[in-house]
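We store sequence, tokenised fold; for instance:
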Amino acid sequence: NAVWCSSSRGVHSSPSSSQQEQQQQQQRILPRDALAGQPTHFTHPNVLGLDELAPSLHISEFQARRRNLARLMPPGSIAIIPAASLAYVTGVIPYPYRQDADFLYLTGLQQQSVAILQTDGSAGYSYQLYVPSPDPEKERWDGAWVGQQAAQQVFKADEVYSIHELPARVQQLATSANAVLFDFDRHNSYQFQALRQSLHDAIGRGKTMPLKPHMHRLRWVKSPGELALMRSSAGIAAQAMRRCMALSHAGVHEQLLATQFECGVKLAGASRLAYPVVAGGGADACTIHYSRNDKQVDGGQVLLMDAGCEYHGYVSDVTRTWPVNGRYTAEQRQVYNIVLEVRRRCLEAAVPGNTLGKVHQLSVQLLSEGLRDLGLLPRATLADFQKGLYRDFYCHSVGHYLGMDVHDTNTVGPHRTLEPGVVMAIEPGLYIPDHPQFGAYAGIGVRIEDDVLVTHSEAEVLSHAVPVDPDRVEALVGAAAGGTLVGATSAGSLSSGDEPAVPFSAAVA
């Protein structure tokens, strides 16, 4: 059994005849066990450098990550890290596969398998991979996955076994280990039931402990290679959101803007959305995770978009609030400026030595002052707002850590002292309930969210490409409306007036 594999430079390039001849000379037959099952430098030299498993991430970085985990583990212990399982839309139709962040962080593998790290009594460790056995009939449908030879040569496993050997091997390793690090709350992980059954005796002997706190400790501070990917992810999201602002106009449909964002980030190289796009117009801007995106937004209303993408395993999370007709009302601008000032002060506080929890406390103090100044509740004092009344208008935290997951490394907690290399989302907001007692302020929701890197000095805003200054926002809104919409539109549905549909190619030019 052999499979052809070529070093072509991808479907988007147009190689010259000499390049084609060179590629034909490089073309070779690889045995089944040598297939990596995902892009490598050999198959995608236009994307990955030599020995890179992701752009900017060399194989040596993954080896260093495994060494760092081994140092945190008790001597003579094992850590078991399963990949993510497939999730299905219905029947045999799967959702696009998304790898478990901890597994991807340690292995670089975008496929199903199980990794085990085994420490010895000193500073040494071994790295084992358990991969599915070749299955020609299944591979006719799904393609070939990583072979045992590639698991060693490409992903640098010390030992490689068939997944069929996993239960017996785990039982044997757990019996002799001093401790077993495994997360039993990951019920949907690959081979979870087999692993749980194999660890039954270890559980009874009190040998097991969670792995997640160690993994989150390692993932919390980002490496230079990781930061390069996070800058790209944030930049892609910011440019796509700029485009959504420029396409906005009175009567624009929420779904059109949500679709435009998804189209924009994927055309720029993102593999998927980081989460469903929030495109809430009018009073729905006050619904934190609004995702219906099913209505037109009238002139005079603001639209709150909360959206991000995933780029080679690293995510972004950006929010902006803008008037779809290009002009904030006086009341909208008042609320917006309060949130904008809180954002500024929170960015100043996002420095080494501070904590995310203290940044949140600052946001509560400042937003409480803003609520008092708006006079929404004339009898309420500043102390009333600070004691909890603010929650009627600001019900979430000011931020969360960001990385391979949107709410990243959540076991670290908000009270750990910030360090250079930590990335977090900073997202103050105010949401005025849509109730007559609030007059012209009723139904105004504003959130401004950025991806922020803690450095040795001031915070670096990774999502800076999308404006926050209200005058710049107003100047951008509508700049491209009236002729560059994505796809065809049905009368009276996504576009207003008699605006003609524009071919997809024109929309992305």
Summary: The CA atoms of residues 158 and 494 lie 55 Å apart.
